[in-house]
Amino acid sequence: MKKLIYSKFGGPEVLQIAEVPIPTVQETTVLIKVKAVAINPLDWKIRNGEMKLMSGSKFPKGIGIDFSGVVEEVGTATTKYNKGDEVFGILDVFKGGALSEYISVEEKDIAIKPQNISFEQAAAMPVVGAAALQIFNTLVRLKKGDEILINGASGGIGMFATQIAKTKGAVVTTVVGDSGIQAVKDWGADFVVNYQNEDILKGNKQYDIVIDLSGKMPFSEAKIIMKHSSAYIHTAPGPKEIVVSFFINLFSSKKYKLLMLKPSPEYMAELTGYAEQGMAIVVSRVYPFYSFNKAYTEVPKGKFIGKAVITMGDLV
Ligand SMILES: NC(=O)c1ccc[n+]([C@@H]2O[C@H](COP(=O)([O-])OP(=O)(O)OC[C@H]3O[C@@H](n4cnc5c(N)ncnc54)[C@H](OP(=O)(O)O)[C@@H]3O)[C@@H](O)[C@H]2O)c1
To answer: Which atom of ligand 1 is nearest to the CA of 41?
Structure first.
């Protein structure tokens, strides 16, 4: 079968298609024929070598974390799935490897695909949906009426965070570029600031929660627009942020929180519920498998809405 791999850190040019054996099903795993795989910033950060501490430097490496597909075979100790079930799921964030014709996955890491969404939409959910849920379930407790700022709201996490924050009764301000304005309004944003012609840091509004998804608003800047007791979420922390946040949290009432994604079956169930209730899951770019190089060249440049996904259709 075909699998996308790389054997050294670098740009999209290090990606290549390898012929490898179809993985064998273990007692507790399920073999899945992959239909679609989401593209995430984590893919290129790991591939570039930016996250060596977590990903290790052993090659070859696979790429692609969240996926959807159809169950092909089930392990003898599995209980939940049957051949033919349509599922979606998530692989180990730092190992990846979903861009492959078949993958063998622990039963706990998949869920039945909601019938009302496509394979592309299902693949788009696990990483960014779980990240948004983890922010609201473990890092901050949103109360009705809280003022929340989502900086970089038109992308993957922003799409889920904006809609989830609205369901919790928050007043949501989003910062997006020209291309994202209509989308965040559709997702329920109360206020929209266009970063291309306005600097949110120069406004006089103060927030209970600031989530930076752009990597361009550090805590040192965000604290100007944070209320006395408030929280800032850094979504791409490295060792420096871990140390800095520890000391800031000792002395400041403005808390500095770090997102470190821990996927769970509970998040998969919660995302299934949101999808079934009709939450918008926008996949604005779909690339066929053989266009992987184009996909990983274009998507990091941004300017798309929600998620970008690679489909395996051209492999059939
Ligand atoms: N820590 C973890 O466990 C974990 C897990 C998942 C993701 N993440 C990280 O979380 C971050 C967000 O992920 P994502 O999937 O939501 O990324 P994404 O889909 O690429 O979204 C990023 C957003 O930032 C916006 N942006 C760019 N420049 C901006 C600026 N100057 N001001 C405001 N917004 C700006 C982009 O808008 P344009 O399209 O206009 O450029 C885009 O909508 C990434 O760094 C990712 O690696 C971390």
So the answer is: 47
The CATH number, out of the four listed (3.40.50.720, 3.40.50.300, 3.30.420.10, 3.30.830.10), of the domain defined by the range 128-258: 3.40.50.720
* Nearest to 151, CA basis, from 233, 231, 206: 233
Cis peptide leading into 239, omega within 30 of 0? no
Q: Which CATH class is domain 2-125+281-315?
A: alpha beta
Query: Residue for token digits 């960014």?
Result: 128
What DSSP line would sit under 107-129, residue for residue? GGGEEEPPTTS-HHHHHHSHHHH
- Residue having the nearest C-alpha atom to atom 12 of ligand 1: 213
Give the Cα separation of 66 and 74 in Å (integer): 19
Residue spans in the chain of domains classed CATH 3.90.180.10: 2-125+281-315
* Ligand 1 neighbour 42 (Cβ under 6 A): yes
The CATH 3.40.50.720 portion of the chain extends over 128-258
Name the residue of 163, 214, 298 whose CB sits within 8 Å of the most ligand 1 atoms, as the mutation to test its pocket: 214
What is the DSSP secondary-structure string of 252-292?
-SEEEEE------HHHHHHHHHHHHTT----EEEEEEGGGH
Instruction: Specify the residue with its C-alpha closest to ligand 1, atom 19.
Output: 155
Dist. CA 137–CA 148, nearest whole Å: 15
Q: Tell me the C-alpha distance between 267 and 280, whole Å.
A: 17
Query: Mind listing the pLDDT tens digit of every residue in the chain (316 residues)?
Result: 999 999 999 999 999 999 999 999 999 999 999 999 999 999 999 999 999 999 999 999 999 999 999 999 999 999 999 999 999 999 999 999 999 999 999 999 999 999 999 999 999 999 999 999 999 999 999 999 999 999 999 999 999 999 999 999 999 999 999 999 999 999 999 999 999 999 999 999 999 999 999 999 999 999 999 999 999 999 999 999 999 999 999 999 999 999 999 999 999 999 999 999 999 999 999 999 999 999 999 999 999 999 999 999 877 6
